[in-house]
Amino acid sequence: MKEHLERLIALQEADLRLEDIAERKRRIPEMVEAARQPLLTAQATRDSLKQEFDKLAKDRKSCEQDLAEQEQALSKLQDRTTKGEIKTNREYQAHLVEIELAKKKKGEIEEKLLILMDQMDTKRKELAQAETAVKDAEKRFTSEKDSLEGSVGALDEEMAALKQKRETMVGAIEPSLLRTYEKLRRTKKGQAMAGVNKDGTCIACRLHVEPQVVAEVKRGISILTCSNCQRILYWTGEPVQIVPQPERKTEAVGVEEAAETTE
Ligand SMILES: [Zn+2]
Fold first, then answer.
1. Which of 17, 45, 61, 137 is the most buried (most CB within 10 A)?
2. What domain range is 137 assigned to?
3. Among residues of the chain, what percentage have pLDDT more than 90?
4. How many domains would you assign to the chain?
5. 195 exposure class (CB count in 10 Å sphere: 0-12, 13-18, 19+)
6. Of 171, 189, 206, the domain-final residue
7. Minimal CA–CA distance to 21: which of 167, 151, 170, 145?
8. Which residues are in the CB-under-5-Å shell of ion ligand 1?
9. pTM
């Protein structure tokens, strides 16, 4: 019976690994998407900086136009003085005020232009940094994507080999036992077997297994199931017969004796 149990344990290991491989393969597209996120963020930052930069460039252009217009207006005004269009002193005073106003306006436009140019310089630097960040993120994403997608081949190979191995394993297991195993596997989320911990609890459902069952599971001479979760039990503690420790032996005997008295 011991070898039956060992075969079942090996089968479960293979089945769990097969499920793990399938799960890994299934998750690859979403992992690729997750790896893409930093790139998308970097691109969004770059794009919004580019928009801000373009807006500043547009503002600067219109500001330069304003300045040109203002300069033209000012020189037209100044021309009036030399052309002798101004006849009276009163007209002349008004003209001077007009020129002052035009100069003031020109100064304001120039100041605005300087600020815009300054802002563009700052934005240009930020944009360059953002471009670098995008390139770095692109590199990282490409390499992560390649490695994720490249792992599919290895997973497929492992899966094919494992499936072949499973065929052989299944052939060596007693049919009725195999049916029990398969039924449990379907109903117990792939986990048909459950180890019994040193403290006598079932690994799967975490409940205590009856002491007499624990004792029998330890000996491994019969197929036993957890009375709570119905999984096939096996011993996970130290193999008592291999590590001879007098204390533990006495303990084990004690459990068996206790089991016998409760029966
Ligand atoms: Zn259980």
1. 137
2. 19-171
3. 79
4. 2
5. middle
6. 171
7. 151
8. 202, 204-205, 226, 228-229
9. 0.65
